[in-house]
Design a protein that fits this description.
Helix content: 55-70%
Structural class: mainly alpha
Strand content: 5-15%
Shape: globular
Order of helices and strands: HHHHHHHHEE
CATH class of one domain: Mainly Alpha
Radius of gyration: 17 Å
């Protein structure tokens, strides 16, 4: 993730209006803060500030950048872990802008499940657990929509992390697959 952030920083230096790089840079910072990783000896508050600035820059250039809304939601979730104040709305905005974004659907479902918000209170939502399950099924290629996105399918297998030996689940596109959009 540290390397990815460096690459996105380079891309943004070359083109300060490169929305996708700004949004992914923001999301990288969001993951660092969310998971409590250290980054260049910066305080979490400083990383949060850098991330918000990147997300805001992306949204200033293009207010329809789903990835920037996703990053913004992560930051709001970190700031308001008990209430998710603003986070669910940001995740819903990301999913509205990019309905195929499995991460946005996953974050909506996870947030609703964590908050135990019934589906009836979320306009247009089918509930946290259902949204989370749907995002998982899309990501694993188990829906008609995911078969259009990944026509050759996906594979999923257990492996061990090369650096820490932790068991992880690896999901990847099958060879020759790609977007059919």
């Amino acid at each position: 993730m540290i390397r990815a952030i460096g690459e996105y920083q380079t891309a943004v230096q070359l083109d300060p209006r490169f929305v996708e790089a700004l949004a992914r840079l923001a999301y990288g910072y969001a993951l660092i803060v969310y998971y409590g990783f250290s980054y260049r000896d910066l305080s979490p508050d400083r990383v949060l500030s850098l991330g918000f600035a990147s997300a805001d820059s992306a949204l200033h250039v293009d207010s329809t950048a789903a990835e920037a809304w996703l990053a913004r939601g992560r930051f709001l979730e970190v700031l308001h872990p008990r209430t998710y104040e603003g986070a669910i709305a940001a995740y819903q905005r990301a999913a509205t802008l990019d309905p195929r974004n499995a991460e946005a659907l996953n974050m909506i479902g996870t947030a609703l499940r964590e908050r135990s918000i019934p589906a009836s209170t979320m306009r247009g939502s089918r509930g946290g657990s259902i949204a989370w399950l749907w995002a998982t099924r899309v990501a694993l290629g188990r829906t008609p929509m995911s078969r259009r996105i990944f026509p050759r399918g996906v594979t999923s297998q257990s492996r061990r992390c090369s650096s820490c030996s932790t068991p992880v689940r690896v999901t990847s596109l099958l060879p020759g697959s790609g977007s059919a959009a």
